[in-house]
Give the backbone structure.
Amino acid sequence: MDYRDSFAFGRILTLYFYTSNADKLLQARLLARRRGLVIRHLSASREPYDEDYSSDTQTLLHRAVDQISGMFGIRNCFFIEDTSIRLDAFSRCSDFPGMRAKEWFSSVSFSEVNEQLLRAENNRRTTVKSDIALHVPGLRSPVMFHSETEGVIADTEPSFAAQVQYPWLTPKTFNGWFVPDGQSGVPKRLGEMEFESSLRYDFRAKNIEQLLDRYSEYMAVANLPSQSFTNRVPTPPVVSQLELDLPRSRSLILIIGGKCAGKTTFADRIAMRESVQVFEASSVFKALANEHNFKSQSDGDVFWFLQSIGLESVGREVARLVSSVPDQTCVVTGLRTIEEILYLQDAFPETIVILIESDQRIRYERHIKRAREQGLDSLSEFRINDERQREYGALRVAHDIADLVISNEESMERYLARVDDVFGHIEKERIQYASAASPSELERCLTALNKIGMVATCQEISDRTQESGFPVLVYNTNRALKAAPEFARRVKRPGGKLSYEITDRGRALLTLMQIRRHRVIQKKNAMMEPNCGQK
């Protein structure tokens, strides 16, 4: 299903997850948020349901659904999930430890299990299974989903650290022992994988994705026009059995930064809040590319494609998606062109642009650790890719257009604390904007070029900048414009005088910088107004 379909629906089906496991809930919510869907927690003060292990998983989940429905009289869609394990060395007709995985794992140590495996001819083959039962009011039986991942138990105890951002990726559960099949390179335990890499192997994540696929289909049906339905009775029921959420207010935060700077981590962190909806610009681009049957992945071809449909096209599509959830704080990651950001800034004047910064070598080391894609295997290749990304425009002038700059060069804990702090200030409208008291040299040069309206020498540009009261020296004029070739075209005139001409992209950047600077000055003045009359 197209990434954007979730936001085309006027009627949103509420989906509850009945669980007492906070990490499971967090994982399910994050996967749903990434698809524009919402999962809510259905909690209880007692154990979720009676876990009778005398029957199979499907029977247990059927009974559990009936028990929960009867106990709470729930008239909404909800689901439950059960994880089971099969250790081939100890399993015969039935799986061991099977559905008792949680109790078994808490009662044994790695060394004990390792000894038992060595005595059983060291057969370390393992399958981890996830089963989900979805209760849909009106259906007699729950809708079942199943996923499993095969692999082996590692030869040694886990020695890696838990991931603060994704607590289910940890050495403290079976994920710390389990090495999934099908990995390239040096095999990793599921718990030590980077989040993006783990999605292919995570038994529960794969099952939740199946559930979300089906739920998206249910929402499409729920949003069909009335003529698509035939009533069996003359008068339809007054109250629907499916609770419908209507969209609620809107703020917009744009996250930009280099590869592996921490954009996705920022978005995932605040996506845990029910009031936040995250959009990935790359997913929007893929949907647009599919519509136009564009397949190439090369940066040159991608930029040509964006030019052919409009460099603001991703921003225009994002604006439509943001408008579909008017009562939520929307976060957009990975925008690359000035035109996209300008379009969104114009559509939503209170837009905040946040730049995530990190040293290039640190970002490269993160890239190697994540191993999410082929290529960029050396620091020099990584540098070349950085320059290709800057050619899209936004990262070339990131400091000129950012309202806030966040450094991500320390531990994950410190970065997440910084994210929480920044978002808390945004929610309370206590933002410390980056300085914008005077225009940058690039802005002054582009302003001068725009006023001249034609090709001009560095001397002519420098002379014109004096009108602003912040003149730029001739040498600095050349340096500023030469560093931003997307926004000012270099021209060699007869006689060898170096000259420049502003491009259409330069005019878009100039507009964006002036809007931002004017807004920041207004905000700062407004913050000072209450004290103006005090003696």
In short: The first helix runs from residue 22 to 33.
